[in-house]
Amino acid sequence: MRRFLFENSLSIFFLVITLGAIVLQSLAGHRVFNDEAMTHGSETIPYGRYLLSSHFGQALAENWQSEYLQFALFALATVWLVQKGSNESKELQSVGLESDEKQKIGSYAASGASSWARARGWRTRIYSHSLVLVMTAIWLASWYAQSVTGWTEYNNEQRDHGEATVSWSGYVTNPYFWEDTLQNWQSEFLAVGSMAVLTIYLRERGSPESKPVGAAHAETGTSG
Amino acid sequence: LPPIVRPVRTMFVVYCALILAGITTYVAVGLTHS
User: Fold this and answer.
1) Is B31 close to A148, i.e. CB distance below 8 A?
2) Are A88 and A195 in contact (CB under 8 A)?
3) Cβ of A61 and B11 within 8 Å?
4) What is the ipTM of this complex?
5) Angle (deg, nearest 10), helices A175-201 and A130-160
């Protein structure tokens, strides 16, 4: 058990603080929801019902989608784009998909590697992009979840104000949807862009997100 | 397979389940209530 906790400490730590933050978000969101309900003279709802509300779902989904977009885009962009001196970039001469030997494809596959890395053909092609494919699928699915929960919320407000409701396609071409979407995107793009640049000059001793403390500023992609 | 694989696979499944459960729940919620 101790060994399990040690070997998985990074993912367990983030899983625990994710669940903790979701619980706190739901408690705060429940109070906001009921506050607004009282202001509008509509009925308040119990906590359990709030967990299954579009209000809570939208708040979760709009942040999830932008995170998965960020990571998918970063994984893809760093295949072709580089930043000299950054720990987030690979070496300048390695731009592109790289050789089968360097990528350990086919007969170069390591023991314990997926059989799809060894198979070649369509299986190797899919497995070669499985990370970005899955991240993109999660991004699109959570963006869709944002759109349907946001749509419900938008129509609820329209009804509260005695105004006309809209169709799903009407909602996704509406500035409310795009404001919610883009305000999340901009912060993610800023965060990855600044991480790429800050790691040229700044260090965190012992972190794989940083170059070694004494690495030269021009040294690219050398986690410490 | 090396012994490390099983616990790592558990974490992989836990994360996939969390993401899938979240997305499916709120797509269903959104579609049901609109």
Assistant:
1) yes
2) yes
3) no
4) 0.85
5) 140
Inter-CA distances, A20 with A15, A23, A25, A68, A145, Å: 9, 5, 9, 20, 22
To 5 degrees, how large is the angle CA A29–CA A33–CA A36? 140
Q: Which residue has the tokens 């579609």?
A: B31
User: Do the chains contact at B15 and A148, CB–CB below 8 Å?
Assistant: no
* Per-residue model confidence as pLDDT tens digits over A82-96: 999 999 999 999 999
A43 Cβ contact partners less than 8 Å away, ≥ 6 residues apart: A37
Q: B31 touching A, CB under 8 A?
A: yes
Tokens of A150: 């946001």
Question: CA–CA distance from B20 to each of A64, A146, A149, B23 (Å)?
Answer: 12, 14, 16, 5
Output the pLDDT for position B21.
96
* Residues of A at the B interface, defined by Cβ within 8 angstroms: 4, 7-8, 11-12, 15, 18, 52-54, 56-58, 60-61, 64, 112, 138, 141-142, 144-145, 147-152, 155, 168
